[in-house]
Amino acid sequence: MFKATSKFKFLLVAALSISVFFACKKHETLPPVDFKWAYYPLKLNSVIVYRVDSTQYFQFSNSKTTYNFELKDSVVSDISEGNSKTFVIHRYKRPLNGAWAFQKVITRSLTGLRAEEFIDNIKFVRLVFPPQIDKYWKGNTYNNLNDYATFSITGLDRKIEINSHVLDSTLTVEEVQEDNLIRQYYATAIYAKNIGLVQRYEVNGQTEITDTIIKEGYRYTMKLISFK
């Protein structure tokens, strides 16, 4: 009888211990997921100015022309609806030390886990959240450009310097549209926390099988100058 009672007590204590353990686990608070929305900030009245250096290549004349100018993106209105956060950006352009002239309207959105941009009547998925190294997605999901365009994150939370601006946390996206023996079309975009896009390098040109030098097309570099 003593042995049976002791065994019963042991089993009861064990059962209670297990119940308490799982009860504690059930109420244990999991750490929140850091979606890193700050890499694609949408803030009314914010302004970013970029320096652009572009080279246009002409195969027929075997020549090239270099262009240098500035772009300014001003967030002018909030047209968010439902669960989509959408802002309107006015882009201005000027020659170096010249006067600003209105160029185009751009809209940028945060929809679900996607950062989207509508520019030149084309919609792109610029980022996905939460960002992770080697995360891939189709940047052209919403347009009729290259269906196989692969965008991927190749750098995350890195500290870099652009035009004397020390940026503690940046994210790099490789946008590959097409890259083969006769054509190059790709871009690298860098985003900084609480600023957004701070640098973009784009190549779009025709080459030859025996030579990777662009014969027809352009190279384009856009870098942050100032922001507020």
Question: Could you give a quick summary of the protein structure above?
Answer:
The chain folds into two domains: 30 residues; 191 residues, YmcC-like fold, CATH 2.40.360.
**What's the arrangement of strands in the largest beta sheet?**
6-5-4-3-2-1-12-11-10-9-8-7
> What series of H and E elements makes up the topology?
HEEEEEEEEEEEE
The CATH topology name of the largest domain reads YmcC-like fold
Contiguous low-pLDDT stretches (5 residues minimum) are: none
Can you tell me the number of structural domains?
2
CATH architecture of the largest domain: Beta Barrel
Described by strand count, sense and barrel closure, the largest sheet is:
12 strands, antiparallel
Number of helices: 1
Ordered list of secondary-structure elements with their pairings:
Layout: H1 2-26, E1 47-58, E2 63-78, E3 85-95, E4 101-111, E5 114-119, E6 122-128, E7 136-138, E8 150-162, E9 165-179, E10 183-192, E11 196-208, E12 211-227
Antiparallel strand pairs: 1-2, 1-12, 2-3, 3-4, 4-5, 5-6, 7-8, 8-9, 9-10, 10-11, 11-12
What does it look like?
The chain is mainly beta. The chain has two domains: 1-30; 37-227, YmcC-like fold (Beta Barrel), CATH 2.40.360. The protein has one helix and twelve strands, in the order H-E-E-E-E-E-E-E-E-E-E-E-E. It has one helix at 2-26, and strands at 47-58, 63-78, 85-95, 101-111, 114-119, 122-128, 136-138, 150-162, 165-179, 183-192, 196-208, 211-227. A twelve-stranded antiparallel beta sheet has the order 6-5-4-3-2-1-12-11-10-9-8-7, with no helix packed on it. Strand 10 (183-192) and strand 11 (196-208) form a beta hairpin. The longest helix has 25 residues, at 2-26. The chain is globular. It starts with a helix and ends with a strand. The relative contact order is 0.15. The mean pLDDT is 86.
